[in-house]
Backbone:
DNA sequence: ATGTATTCTGAACAATGTTCAATATATTTG
DNA sequence: CAAATATATTGAACATTGTTCAGAATACAT
């Protein structure tokens, strides 16, 4: 009976797509069960036949957005060999993605995680996401003998923290005030981290 | 008729104190108008005689917590002369304060700012807070000729971003998992930033 | 003490997420 | 093809949220 599975998956897809559209355009504050169902063309009660609750639905969107982000960055950095330049491209792509979709950044880092999932796994997956994107490059720097493992571990943490902070300040405080300045400052800070 | 003013201020104080207690112990998710009023010993409707809405109440708490944090750090760093060591103490005190009260960190950085205030001022005050605490030290480093103004501007931004990121990861992802490790890593990262 | 001003409060409203019994639709069976 | 059964969809209903407002309780003034 795989027909059932296909139909069910399609239904889930409608709700997921609706949710992602709202998140992309309006962020988390645009989300409500009735709104999602409206957008999907069903009653709000129908949603509960396909998802435990709205948190599960949002949780799925987090995964989808991560995949989207990962794919985009992979394409941007495809031609660059591993190492510092590749790493810079990844970080820049990461910053680009979330500044294009501030609502998704908010969903990832700002929203109370308990609203998405209480599991520790979820937090790890969200907060460890950037690190997984950079993993190969850091490893490469160790293998090349450019940097000691201890130094890489430190820089790695700093890169994660710095990036999160950059987005937090830019998207929430609008500091710096415009995109070119932001990119400029971000590049400077990342350079400082990688070279210094 | 200043008696009225005093009484009114006292009433406001009851609600503010109740709100602060909840924020300290349970964070933003513990907040509700009825809960605050209960804690203050009044009906929820009474709250609206003294505050425009709950956002104004929370906004006041933000200011109070900042003052509390500032005072504590000032005391910790009182005996240290301006410069890098003083700066480190301030940053450490800042990290300490928010790890002691994770709910306040959440209130400051995680909660949707629109839930507190829509004004740009508020965002500036929250996100610029750490920077004001460090202002004198950065200025000192320039005046001493230790670092160029441009270099200080860069490090300054990095310090803000790094600190926010550190707290974000520690409090949300529990990474690193324990307090001593966190302090250790934080110190290392700050040293790297200031020396390197 | 009586009348007026002020302060306090529960009822009520709209919006939220969620549940559930009933309705509508699909599927199977005779 | 019709009847019976299983499944899918739905709105009504509930609890909880922030907020408003008319009236009740209290304080103050005459």
Residues:
């Amino acid at each position: 009976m795989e027909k059932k599975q296909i139909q069910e998956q399609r239904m889930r897809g409608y709700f997921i797509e609706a949710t992602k559209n709202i998140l992309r355009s309006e962020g988390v504050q645009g989300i409500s069960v009735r709104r999602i169902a409206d957008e999907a063309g069903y009653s709000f009660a129908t949603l509960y036949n396909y998802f435990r609750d709205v948190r599960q639905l949002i949780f799925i969107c987090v995964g989808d957005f991560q995949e989207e982000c990962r794919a985009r960055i992979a394409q941007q950095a495809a031609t660059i060999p591993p190492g510092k330049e590749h790493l810079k491209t990844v970080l820049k792509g990461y910053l680009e993605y979330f500044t294009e979709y501030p609502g998704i950044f908010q969903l990832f880092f700002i929203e109370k995680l308990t609203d998405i999932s209480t599991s520790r796994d979820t937090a790890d997956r969200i907060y460890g996401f950037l690190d997984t994107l950079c993993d190969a490059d850091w490893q490469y720097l160790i293998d090349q003998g450019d940097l000691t493992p201890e130094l890489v571990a430190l820089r790695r943490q700093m890169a994660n923290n710095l990036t999160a902070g950059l987005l937090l300040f830019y998207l929430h405080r609008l500091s710096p005030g415009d995109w070119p300045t932001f990119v400029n400052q971000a590049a400077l800070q990342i350079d400082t981290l990688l070279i210094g």
